[in-house]
Amino acid sequence: MRTEKLRYLEEVSYRNASDACRDETLTQFSKHHKVIEAITARRFVRLVIDKDGLINELWVFIGKERDYILIPCLYCSCPDFTINVLSKGVKKFCYHLVALEIARRSNAYKELEVEPNDLVKIVLEIVINNFSSYLRRLLYRT
């Protein structure tokens, strides 16, 4: 019974997170200083793996001190999303999800084609260290 309730709460939280990509939300938050700064500084990176013509992508927010993994309109690995959206349910989404959608729609992001091993290394660094120095090296090389 407890597992079913947790599953239901997670499902509701993820459905609410999709509100971050609604036109009304984007309009409302487009003037927010954090959103503007994230977009103008091009803090979002689309990591692309092109394997036999099949494109796979992963989005990363490059912060000043921490990096986050994002799934557009659905998930962000930032503490605000984990605590206030998933755990407490006091918010529907974090500003990273809104800013990412605005950046995607306006092509205001960096894109980097990576090998599968590079992607694994980047994700592990973000999950373990909250920061990927390897991603920065790859970005500054291009």
Mind sketching the topology for me?
Layout: H1 2-17, H2 23-29, H3 33-40, E1 44-51, E2 54-62, E3 67-71, E4 75-76, H4 79-87, H5 95-105, E5 110-113, H6 116-129, H7 133-141
Parallel strand pairs: 1-5
Antiparallel strand pairs: 1-2, 2-3, 3-4
Helix pairs in contact: 3-5
Could you explain the architecture of this structure?
With 142 residues, this protein is α+β, with helices and mostly antiparallel strands. α3 packs across α5. The longest helix is centred in the N-terminal third of the chain and has 16 residues. The chain is globular and about 40 Å long. Strands 4-3-2-1-5 form a 5-stranded mixed β-sheet. The protein has 7 helices and 5 strands. It has one domain.
What is the structure about, briefly put?
The chain is α+β, with helices and mostly antiparallel strands and 142 residues long. 52% of the residues lie in helices and 20% in strands. A five-stranded mixed sheet has the order 4-3-2-1-5.
Structural class: alpha+beta
What would you call the shape? globular
Which segments are poorly predicted (pLDDT under 50) over 5 or more consecutive residues? none
Number of domains: 1
Our measurement of the CA-to-CA distance between the termini, rounded to an integer number of angstroms, reads 52 Å
What is the number of E strands?
Answer: 5
How much strand content do the residues show?
15-25%
Helical stretch tally: 7
Task: Give a quick account of the main beta sheet: strands, pairing sense, barrel closure.
Answer: 5 strands, mixed
Widest beta sheet: strand line-up: 4-3-2-1-5
